[in-house]
Amino acid sequence: MRLKDKVAIVTGGSRGIGKGIAQAFAAEGAKVAVVYRGSQQAAEELAASISGKAYQCDVTNLAAVETCVKQIEQELGSIDILVNNAGVIHDDLFVRLEPEQWNVVISTNLGGTYNFCKAIAYPMMRKRAGRIINVSSVAASHVNMGQTNYAASKGAINSFTRALAVELASRGVTVNAIAPGFIETDMSAAVRNKAGDLLKKFIPMKRIGVPEDIAKVAVFLASEESAYITGQVITVDGGLSLGAVAAQ
Ligand code: NAP
Predict the structure, then answer these.
(1) Fold (topology level) of 7-233
(2) Per-residue pLDDT at 156 exceeds 60
(3) pLDDT confidence tier of residue 194, bands split at 50, 70 and 90
């Protein structure tokens, strides 16, 4: 077991990629705090199935995040691993994009990452150990129409990851990011339903990813095996970002 007795927080753990990461961490022996916004039943069922605990917390609210982190520390112990996975999309062409669509994406994806790091970085530094894993996207560098807000949030997460890694490296805390391609979750459902098999033409491995594809990399980055890796953005996309269009 690679994460035996480690205490891990997974934001957005109620569904999709976060759920996959929470399950994989628990299978490796971690005690997992499943942080969710509204999906109480899903989060509690998942937490019960992995002997973890569910915590309701809006990642955009720093005061709520600080209270949540304190509660997790009291109930599960000091935090060893933080996965900033909670994220949203609100796509539209830039000229039609309302300030609210901009703000909610930036405050959730980037602001949520800042808030949890703000609450946890110092305790990890004092402990001289810790793993921070931010969930980015290939959309940060391989941009799509209608995603100025999302691309900006994920590009900023990549830069934030590198900059924070430099500050925490000497204290034994690593900070890395995972950039998924298309993964089968609620978030990608609209695109998958619209584009169907066409999507696979752009993926050399010819399949949409599943949460487990991301979770395996998260386990590696959370474990001792990745001790000498920091400030990296690891792409997990079946080759999508290589930019080749498959022959058929
Ligand atoms: P998803 O299925 O839509 O799940 C989103 C998760 O984020 C849910 O657990 C949701 O909680 C939580 N969340 C959203 N806003 C929140 C807030 N304000 N406070 C707390 N939790 C909040 O999405 P997903 O596809 O698994 O995406 C997970 C991460 O992967 C995101 O950062 C996304 O940008 C990234 N990603 C996804 C793909 C993809 O193809 N799916 C590709 C690249 C990157 P509730 O259930 O309570 O609402």
Answers:
(1) Rossmann fold (3.40.50)
(2) yes
(3) confident
